[in-house]
From TrEMBL:
Organism field: Panacagrimonas perspica
Name of protein: Integrase-like protein
Region Disordered, annotated ranges: 42-69, 199-222, 704-746
Domain of life per record: Bacteria
Family matches, as PROSITE patterns: INTEGRASE (PS50994)
Feature: compositional bias, Basic and acidic residues: 42-63, 209-218, 704-726
GO molecular function: nucleic acid binding
GO biological process terms, semicolon-separated: DNA integration
Gene3D superfamilies registered for this protein in UniProt: Ribonuclease H-like superfamily/Ribonuclease H (3.30.420.10)
Lineage of source species: Bacteria, Pseudomonadati, Pseudomonadota, Gammaproteobacteria, Nevskiales
Domain Integrase catalytic: from-to ranges: 343-559
Length: 771
């Protein structure tokens, strides 16, 4: 051990047992000035109990010179430790070699540093009466706090008398007071904090002071009430009043409160329950049942006394925990215990996915007069960079089918997604995201069989947050709040569901104007803006600042890839499409390739004559993957080669590509709702047409019969009649000029003119008769 000023050591040598602090070391004389600051515990004697000596019998005589206020301090004060002992250095080294001496380290309590650790410095001209108690102590003992001045005095005089005299003159204190301060320095160490005043040991506010009904116990505090004052003035016996809180009552109240379930009820109910559990002592047996009886007056504490005990004896944090459930405390009350990106290797390693209902009403792209409700928005966030790497808007959920399509949107790339939607879907990230290594999702998606199959094929680590613990993946929850804050103020049909007051929600479904794809386009712009502009200055370390990266999610993403700490992986298109998108059956027929009632086309299918083969040798089916956010494309494995075939909507199909799968299903369902009406209308139309046709046939029969009865002479041949009918149907040649001579009608024309005139007269006669 190296002997130096302020060092402490434990000595077990016979006659010298105790803990010592070194004040000065005289290497020339080979001695060290030490002060024993603590005695070692004595080993009990085997000869029996020792007779109690004077020290074992506390004196009943009250100490003189002490007031009632500080008598407690005097009785509990530690003994003085300021007797200087000079020990030979060689002897101490010998004790150390024999393992009878070892160095120890004594740490002060935190209360010594409650006022801060700033160092105080004063001139000798300072008036000690203007200083606080702590400052006066430091000013008085400044020479003792100077190691050079203390060692010089001890080596010259082998005592502290000179420094004590200076301290008495400087601080205007007596010798006893100075030696008390020296004792504090010896016990606590030669530093300014050792001179702190210990207000925490003075029995002030917050200290228990029970009013136990025992001899010498503390009486109820406070002044007498009006009835007691009057009785005292007249010399009468004061009336009985509510007793003060005793130690027994405190124990009963705390024990009864501990039996109440958490979260605790309202205070009034809580007090009544404490009285019933902890203070009910009288029962009455009625029909074999014990019935609680009213308590006697002044035998139980009041609600005010119970509240005071609970407030004073239960720590604030413990009371807060008892006032709510554990889940609510963990989510909304407890302090921050970590960061979401702690333990994440870099960008692209861990993603978090979560779904939320958008605070907006949308209209159908099939018919904008239809309101389809609020959409479900899936967001995929990179945990390390907090960047949004993908999203998906649907009308169903939550389910793994929807979550897997959001992962497809994140890993497929902006070029693929822009081709599907028909507009720019880039999110401002360079390079483009690839599929992650670890995924954090909700329990509902995690427990599905499809999720396990997806994880077995593409994700090494699939985990979920505990139910009702959104704080475990708070980054993606915050993104939902940011998304709603971005779209609520200015998009028609949007509102704020977080407002508790119904009047402030602001939902107006009839104001909705946006379709699903238009909402996707808005989200793409807003998420790209978030990636490029969100403030991430708190994430920058000195290396990032020196590199000059932009403090945004996109900047963190780009920097992580530039510094080679990102996680990237190559996943084949066939694997991605197979495990991410839902599957259906596409039919290859002689009329084309159809999927869900829509016709698709592909150049390879045309080159290989798929429809010709189906027309001549029978239709066939193949597995097709489709993206629920748009009907514009489907994907199938290439049956004659590697890779994936992409099919686009045919120009002659019944869909435009701007609808979602759900909207197509809605339109089909709406169309089927009126099928019976359409069938009925067709039937009525057919019946009406048949009635009209029957009337025409009947009229024709009647007219033909009448004509046969009138015309009983010679009839023209079938050829002549046909020629006459054709002449009647041909248009009359225009008159080209007065010089042209009109041909004379032949016999057939005369016959036709006569029959036409007769038919006209008959029709006029029928109309006149009918009118």
């Amino acid at each position: 051990m190296e002997l130096m000023h302020n060092a402490t050591f434990l000595l077990n040598a016979p006659g010298l047992e105790g803990v010592y602090r070194v004040l000065a070391v005289d290497n020339d004389c080979g001695v060290a000035g030490c002060v024993k600051i603590d005695e070692l515990p004595k080993v009990p004697s085997d000869t029996g109990k020792e007779k109690p000596g004077p020290e074992a019998r506390p004196s009943e005589k009250k100490p003189t010179g002490q007031t009632k206020a500080n008598r407690r301090l005097f009785l509990s004060a530690a003994p003085h430790r300021a007797r200087l002992t000079w020990l030979p250095i060689a002897t101490l080294e010998l004790f150390e070699s024999e393992a009878q001496l070892k160095e120890v380290d004594i740490e002060l309590q935190g209360s010594f540093y409650s006022g801060g650790q700033e160092l105080l410095a004063f001139d000798d001209s300072v008036d000690v009466r203007t200083l606080s108690p702590f400052e006066a102590r430091v000013f008085c003992m400044k020479d003792f706090l100077n190691p050079a001045a203390l060692q010089e005095s001890l080596l010259d005089t082998r005592s502290l008398s000179s420094l004590v005299s200076k301290a008495m003159a400087r601080g205007k204190r007596g010798k006893v007071g100075i030696y008390k301060l020296i004792s504090l320095l010896c016990r606590n160490g030669f530093c300014q904090a050792a001179l702190r005043t210990r207000e925490d040991r003075q029995g002030g506010a917050g200290k228990p002071r029970p009013c136990d009904a025992i001899e010498g116990g503390r009486k109820k505090p406070g002044k007498l009430n009006t009835a007691q004052t009057i009785a005292k003035a007249y010399g009468e016996e004061p009336p009985k009043v509510q007793p003060a809180i005793s130690s027994e009552w405190e124990s009963r109240i705390l024990a009864a409160d501990a039996r109440l379930p958490t979260p605790k009820p309202k205070m009034k109910t809580r007090c009544d329950s404490i009285i019933r559990i902890g203070f009910t002592t009288r029962y009455k047996q009625v029909d074999g049942k014990l019935i609680e009886q009213p308590h006697a007056q002044f035998s139980i504490p009041t609600n005010r006394q119970i509240c005071r005990v609970l407030r004073k004896r239960i720590p604030e944090l413990e009371a807060l925990i008892r006032s709510t459930t554990k889940g609510h405390y963990d989510r909304n009350i407890r302090g921050l215990v970590g960061r979401s990106w702690a333990g994440v290797a870099g960008p692209g390693h861990t993603w978090a996915i979560d779904s939320g209902v958008g605070d907006i009403y949308l209209v159908s792209s099939v018919n904008r007069a239809w309101i389809i409700g609020r959409p479900v928005v899936y967001i995929v966030v990179d945990v390390w960079s907090t960047a949004i790497v993908g999203f998906y808007v649907c009308l169903r959920g939550p389910s793994w089918d929807m979550a897997s399509q959001a992962l497809f949107a994140a890993a497929a790339g902006s070029e693929t997604m822009s081709g599907i939607y028909g507009f720019d879907c880039s999110l401002g990230l360079s390079p483009e995201p690839t599929l992650c290594f670890s995924l954090l999702c909700d329990r509902g998606e995690y427990l599905s069989k499809a999720a396990r199959q997806f994880a077995a094929a593409l994700i090494q680590d699939l985990a979920y947050a505990a139910p009702y613990r959104p704080d475990w993946k708070g980054i993606v929850e915050v993104i939902h709040r940011i998304e709603k804050d971005m779209i609520v103020p200015w998009i028609p049909g949007a509102g704020d569901a977080r407002m508790k007051e119904l009047e402030r929600r602001g939902f107006r479904p009839n104001d909705a104007v946006m379709t699903v794809q238009e909402f996707v386009a808005v989200l793409a712009v807003e998420f790209k803006t978030y990636n490029l502009t969100a403030d991430r200055n708190h994430r920058l370390d000195p290396a990032m600042k020196m590199a000059g990266i932009h403090p945004s999610p996109s900047g963190l993403w780009n920097w992580g890839h530039h510094e080679k700490i990102a996680n990237r992986r190559k996943v084949s298109e066939l694997e991605l499409y197979t495990h991410s998108l839902p599957m259906g059956l596409a039919s290859i027929t002689g009329r084309g390739i159809k999927f869900n009632g829509r016709e698709y086309e592909c150049q390879q299918a045309k080159d290989e004559h798929w429809t010709t083969m189906a027309k001549n040798f029978g239709k066939s089916v193949l597995n097709a993957r489709h993206f629920g956010g748009s009907t514009s494309k489907i994907w199938t494995p290439n049956p004659t080669g590697p890779g994936v075939l992409r099919f686009n909507l045919s120009q002659t199909t019944t869909a435009s590509g701007f609808e979602t799968d759900d909207e197509m299903l809605d339109s089909n369902a709406f169309h089927l709702l009126s099928k019976n009406d359409r069938d009925y209308a067709r039937m009525v139309t057919r019946l009406q047409a048949r009635v009209q046709a029957d009337e025409i046939i009947a009229l024709a029969k009647e007219r033909t019969r009448e004509a046969k009865e009138r015309d009983r002479g010679a009839k023209p041949t079938m050829t002549d009649a046909r020629r006459l009918e054709n002449d009647m149907m041909e248009p009359t040649a225009p008159n080209v000029g007065p010089e042209q001579i009109r041909p004379e009608p032949d016999d057939v024309d005369e016959l036709y003119a006569r029959l036409e005139e007769e038919a006209r007269r008959r029709m006029e006669a029928e109309e006149t008769a009918g009118g």
